[in-house]
Amino acid sequence: MTKLTYKRSALFFFHFAGLPVLMVICVLMFSAVAQEAPAGKPLPDSENPIRITADSLITDPKNKTAEFTGHVLATQGDTTITSDKLKVYYKKGNPSGPASGMDAIVRMVAEGTVKIVLADTVAHTQHAEYFADQRIVVLTGPNSRIIDGNNTISGQKITLYRDDRRIHVAGTQKEQVEAFFYSDENILGAPKKKN
């Protein structure tokens, strides 16, 4: 096992070829070289590099993992993850595919105080897992919640399907699913407030 320890402001910017850790973290589907977006449009997340800062990093090539601990901040495009710990699981990439032999992320696990920002949606939880092949984020723990504008959904387990933005929320007997939706319409026929 290789152990790399860095001070608080350690920066891991996976954007250039040749760095062994790049093979661990990079999820770029094309070249590891930066690409310009046409007409100033942002690149899709899969084409942006992942930038991770943390207090320390431990890589384990034998088990194909990289574990970031302490004040973790990971960003890719308009997605941001902050957590106490972030563990990345990877596999060998397809040698004939677009990533041409680069390792690919299989799963990511964030633990501690976890906050995920997906464009205009914010999620808070104690444990989050991302399954890359299905593009699914699973949040678990008490008071796990997703906030989208003024609307909030909370429960013990929340599954977010990134491709079609579906959400499945499960509660327990002690912690039921709770949702707050704001609308301009009086859908349920509640009495209007008098001025």
Architecture overview:
The protein has 195 residues and is mainly beta. The chain has two domains: 1-111, no CATH class; 120-182, Lipopolysaccharide (LPS) transport protein A like domain (lipopolysaccharide transport protein A fold, Sandwich), CATH 2.60.450. It has one helix and twelve strands; from the N terminus they run ββαββββββββββ. Residues 1-43 have low confidence and may be disordered.
Give a brief description.
By secondary structure, the chain is mostly beta strands. The chain contains one helix and twelve strands, in the order E-E-H-E-E-E-E-E-E-E-E-E-E. It folds into two domains: 111 residues, no CATH class; 63 residues, Sandwich (lipopolysaccharide transport protein A fold), CATH 2.60.450.
Give the topology, please.
Elements: E1 2-5, E2 11-13, H1 20-25, E3 51-53, E4 56-60, E5 65-76, E6 79-91, E7 104-118, E8 121-131, E9 136-148, E10 151-161, E11 166-170, E12 178-180
Taken together, the total number of domains comes to 2
Arithmetic mean pLDDT: 75
Provide the structure class: mainly beta
The H/E string reads: EEHEEEEEEEEEE
Number of strands: 12
Low confidence ranges? 1-43
Q: What gap, in angstroms, lies between the N and C termini?
A: 68 Å
Task: State Rg.
Answer: 19 Å
Measured by DSSP, the beta-strand proportion falls in: over 45%
What features would you highlight for this structure?
mainly beta; 12 strands; disordered N terminus; about 200 residues; elongated; lipopolysaccharide transport protein A fold; twelve-stranded antiparallel sheet; about 5% helix; 2 domains; 1 helix
